[in-house]
Amino acid sequence: MPQKIAIITGAARGIGLATARLMASKDIGVVLVDRDTEELSQAAEGLGLALPYDVSDPDQVDQMIADTLKHHGRIDALINNAGVADFGPIEDTSFARWRRVMETNLDGVFLCSQAATPALKETKGAIVNIASISGLRASTLRVAYGTSKAAVMHLTQQQAAELGEYGIRANCVCPGPVRTKLAMAVHSQDIIDAYHDAIPLNRYGSEEEIAQMITFLASGEASYVSGQVISVDGGFQSTGIGLPALRE
Fold this sequence. Notes:
globular; alpha/beta
């Protein structure tokens, strides 16, 4: 039986790379996509096919699908993980900054999913979109980022509703605070302590923990799961109202 093949965008680092490594450990063929050519080349070495493409560019997305099919002949899962974060006040968010976020975080998900659909019909494959708890609960400085992720959640449900008749499943993962190198570089100790107080499990998640949920949703073990938005956040979403001190 042919090996299953998964495309993972934004795979040069973080959650995307963790997902590629986990899937590869389960004998899934992985295609790592990222526009950071140098970082991607290092990350993909010995792991899978590296494709240095920008998911916001329709022509490059089409080439991504063509290259994958030429190399592997099939696509069983598409993991739309590529994203950019641009945090700032509403008044300071220019239209150029807004579009920079939207073209990758939202347009990229649409373009990649649309381009992969014919191949996913053949395999009755799966789409897993990566959003964020910032799309579920408003927060300061996230007008573009949070809005883009909220749109990804709705797009996921549109995909599930329309593509289900072809056997294609679509689900969305919303990570909470994750202990990435970037987060640890910009989060002060006060921010870290505040997150720990607000998250019932009292800690950040790991990239590997998010990858576990993504891999499950992309697998046959989730064969009757579609149209779902799942938070992987240590219970953070459950504390959307009320103060942490009131839970003591």
